[in-house]
Automatic annotation (TrEMBL), chains A, B:
Protein's recorded name: Glucokinase
Family: Belongs to the ROK (NagC/XylR) family.
Domain of life: Bacteria
SUPFAM superfamilies linked to this entry: Actin-like ATPase domain
Organism phylogeny: Bacteria, Pseudomonadati, Bacteroidota, Chitinophagia, Chitinophagales
Native source species: Niabella ginsenosidivorans
Amino acid sequence: MGILDLSNELAIGIDIGGTNTKYGIVNHRGEILDKGDIKTDAYPSIEEFIEGLHNAMMPIIEKHSSVGIKGIGMGAPNGNYYTGTIEYAPNLPWRGIIPIAKMVTEKFSIPCTLTNDANAAAMGEMMYGAARGMKDFIMITLGTGVGSGIVSNGLMIYGHDGFAGELGHIIVRPGGRKHWSTGAHGSLEAYCSATGIAITAKKLRAENIHSALNEISEDKIDSLAVFEVAEKGDETAKEVFRYTGQILGEALANFIMFSSPEAIILFGGVIKAGDYIMKPTKEHMEKNLLPIFQNKVKLVFSELKEADAAILGASALAWET
Amino acid sequence: MGILDLSNELAIGIDIGGTNTKYGIVNHRGEILDKGDIKTDAYPSIEEFIEGLHNAMMPIIEKHSSVGIKGIGMGAPNGNYYTGTIEYAPNLPWRGIIPIAKMVTEKFSIPCTLTNDANAAAMGEMMYGAARGMKDFIMITLGTGVGSGIVSNGLMIYGHDGFAGELGHIIVRPGGRKHWSTGAHGSLEAYCSATGIAITAKKLRAENIHSALNEISEDKIDSLAVFEVAEKGDETAKEVFRYTGQILGEALANFIMFSSPEAIILFGGVIKAGDYIMKPTKEHMEKNLLPIFQNKVKLVFSELKEADAAILGASALAWET
């Protein structure tokens, strides 16, 4: 191997979540060679957080220091690709605008690129997952919230300010359900996130007193619990997913008429409900498309392991630079 | 000037509409040096149409033949950039899939690039109009129908199949007004096209018997007629535009959360209603945006003369190749 062979170069991926921050060292094949995590919320100031992250990561960085490390890719809620700042993230401990990419670059002496967590997930899918080789796709993350990353012409759509791709906040039912945090009425997230599904389940079980959903205690009602009740044949539990899938499918049809992707890739806890949600989603997606778009957009699940996807996605950013 | 100076090179723009086909020879500064038109619907077969177009255009092509002609750009309903074909255009006389770019290239011995008419309009705006220098914008054409062209990262979004940007068919009112042609319920075009505005006006004048809108004969009700009545102070006529603007504004907010454009550029006959439609559009657009998107997206009118825009837009395609 000559000195110009970079195929064994490595990238670092860091995923900052409200509770945990995960990190890993990744090779070109998407294998995580080493990984770890720290508690995000244990660091009240961003300086302490970066100090803690640096201390935690130094052993694995030194371990691989004989191989070049191309860069650090970082995904975070409200992370802005253009400015490298996290801006007013409601679920992180640090207020205001945090110039985290610059701070990490200086602390680690390795160039750091930031994007939001949903865009990072889409990057990971394009580099290592279900979107390999695709130039046009949309990734939708159905978790506690609804996130999204949109790729068109082979490029992530960041928009003029770096904030593009907030599909969870698109209004799909004007005047509909009020969002617990934004206050908007009828947004996709209000219905199709895990939180939205729990609200739907509580509403429907109140209307159907014989449903086995009523046997679950109030604080245990979540997407997984509803799935388990559906598996036992409960029609109300199935209706929760049918209703959610209809709204998701209608929204996906609108997204397709915007950017005409080759595929829509779904990711996140909600997709564990499988066909209960996928069948109505697919049905209403197709039904709401113009004929020229029908029966050609793939609706698939992520191919990345949920535990690794965030690290892989973030690391994918580092190869770009 | 040496032989490598191409600044005086020319491009041909052809805009195929259901009734007329306009063509022109355009320079780099967006000046139309010569133009003309033929009747699209006078040619029952595509072969006759291309023969007729060639005969009509040869005099002006020969006139400029001492200068290089870089290419022909063509805009047409259902025109596909990737395949160069017009596919199942309901308003054109020719059925099925028409390989028009190839046919024109061969007939004129000049390379021809095709796109749909709304994308061509956006190209023209980027090259010569209100979107000069922008890398992220959305162009919305409010005419008989609602068309759109979306530019992101400086590139037109065509999608994987060339059909992206059908924003007129996005559902903005699930279960709402049935579209006269697609049969879909609640699409943007059903409300915000000139046709949609006429429907709203007829509905509202029936509910408000004292409105001066009732003095217009049934077949004369259109966007312009409603505007004229609004100018005389009629509240029902104003309400037609307020209602239309609200729906348009809500839709634009959704589009912004998708691709975060620097500007939305409006074009077409409907915008002649000016503030009657723009004020509610802007108000409801801002109201439905997440705070991070508020008060930063420009909502502007096209800067191109309506009579020339289609030719300029189509010609802009030719410079790209």
